[in-house]
């Protein structure tokens, strides 16, 4: 069953681009923007990551930390971070544990072809590790998603 508003997130979130374990307690006392995206270096995912990059200082001033998640590996994440100069970590969820726990992995369709993939979804997690807002794929505007997060009630 997928996580919902009011649920506490798991302590171990996964490994970052350097193989370091990312834990929920690392972000205790700050709000966490945990955003799931389909694939490194694709146009929509790059626009979304750059939106967070460009507003990162403002997000931090408002008490947020940003962490991206995709099923790409650590090396792919390192290249994406370097090329786009991203100031935040990306979780390499290669075994699909996190995307399945959060309910963002499923069947997608492109030009009539069906395949399994990540639904672009963002979870806002409060200072105690509890989900307080979920942005669904239809709500997310990739180029201005950081502004959407900052304006959430």
C-alpha geometry: globular
Strand arrangement, major sheet: 5-4-3-8-9
Q: Radius of gyration over alpha carbons?
A: 14 Å
H/E element sequence: EEEHHEHEHEEEEH
CATH topology: Glutaredoxin
The helical percent reads 25-40%
3D architecture notes:
It is a single chain. By secondary structure, this protein is of the alpha/beta class. The protein has a single domain (12-139), classed as Glutaredoxin (3-Layer(aba) Sandwich). The chain has helices spanning 43-54, 56-61, 74-84, 97-101, 145-150, and strands at residues 12-15, 21-23, 31-36, 64-70, 89-92, 105-110, 113-118, 121-125, 131-135. It has a five-stranded mixed β-sheet. Strands 1-2 form a two-stranded antiparallel ribbon. A two-stranded antiparallel ribbon has the order 6-7. It is globular and about 45 Å long. The two termini are 26 Å apart. The model has no long low-confidence stretch (mean pLDDT 95).
In short:
This protein has helices at 43-54, 56-61, 74-84, 97-101, 145-150, and strands at 12-15, 21-23, 31-36, 64-70, 89-92, 105-110, 113-118, 121-125, 131-135. It has 153 residues and is of the alpha/beta class. It has a single domain, classed as Glutaredoxin.
